[in-house]
Amino acid sequence: MFNRSARRHAEYKSKAQFPRRHLAIAASTLIALGVSLVLLPGEDAQAKRTAIPLDLELTPISPIPEEDALVVEAQQEWLDIEVRSGDSLSAIFARAKLSPQDLHELLTTAKKTKALNTIKPGQKLSFQINDNGKLDAMSLRVDKLSSLVFERGVTGFNTTEVTETPEIRQRVASATITSSLYKAAQEAGVSQSIIMELANIFGGVLDFVYDVRKNDHFIVIYEELYLNGEHLGSGQILAALYHNQGQSFQAYRYINDEGDVDYFSEAGESMRKAFLRAPLDFTRISSKFDPKRLHPVFKTVRPHRGVDYAAARGTPVYAAGDGRVLEAGYSKANGNYVFIKHGEAYVTKYLHLHKRAVSKGERVKQRETIGWVGSTGYATGPHLHYEFLMNGVHRNPATIIDKLPPPKRVSGKDMPRFQQQISGMQLQLRTYAAQRNYSSEG
């Protein structure tokens, strides 16, 4: 207590002994303080201010060290190399100045490298090579829409499949038949794949060998695929009309609620019948079904229990319907042959094949290639001999189709969905038919 009083007394004494200059400065300070009090806002104005907590801690912002600053690296460029005739993968790597070790590591650690074993002239390989001359990444253009990218990782190369989505444009083509469907379609600018698919779609109701007539006409609406302005090829047929001998057939692509795709008539009847009318495309009939035919080799009257289709050697032969291969072999008379059993009642036979594509016991689908036209066995030239048996009895393949059970239909509960899905195509077909003065009704 004594020490505190003595200290205060000493401070007071010190102040009392200030020189006059200090007293003048103090007086000036008091006057300035009084003026500032007069100018301060009142209590109402003070209340409107936002209070700032006195205990708020402000974190100072430190400057970013130079070593942590964002660095934008220049992207490595790709080196493109086109596969030449006779090229091997090792030769291409050498041309890219990459080591055999890089190639070995790629082939032993990456997935889907089988595609690299089947590279063809014209394909393109692209490489990213680092400053040390090592392979960082490689890309193989598999086709116009897909690529395989191999990128170096921690333990080897990782594989990524890259698929680009093409632009889909709708196209319509039409033609009048003067000699054949194939020639008319070609003159209309229709691709071969669309011609074949058109024949496939109508193959259950028309025999394009036997039924086609001069002045028949067709309209086909289909997709064309483009990528970056480049035409890639044809897509799906969306709708088609074929007018044959006073009767029109229409087909519409329909996707049901389970994702299954098929072609149906306006009435909802499947265009895909149980059997094709002809097991090959665009040929001519050289010999019809005839129980009293004169055999061309033996020159004797022998029943011809099938239909002969003259065609170039190597023309694909299709399974007329779904089934299982009953027999597949060779005999002196039949040459290379295939017999297919379809359910319990039907068998189809294909004789004089150049080669067989199936073996006994295999399951086959309608329009699956089972062999190729030839002239093996008792044959005077390349052709297919085709037979159709029902319950063990030979029937005329050209007429029996119309006597078989009807094809499947769109169910009643699915008809509203079907009609809604095809309505736009129906209108387009009718509009195009009217513009070209084609008949669209049978």
TrEMBL record:
Keywords: Hydrolase, Membrane, Metal-binding, Metalloprotease, Protease, Transmembrane, Transmembrane helix, Zinc. Pfam families: Csd3_N2, LysM_OapA, Peptidase_M23. The chain crosses the membrane at residues 21-40. It is found in: Cell envelope. Its main location: other. SUPFAM superfamilies: Duplicated hybrid motif (SSF51261). Its cofactor is Zn(2+). PROSITE patterns: LYSM. Residues 79-127 form the LysM domain. This is Peptidoglycan DD-metalloendopeptidase family protein.
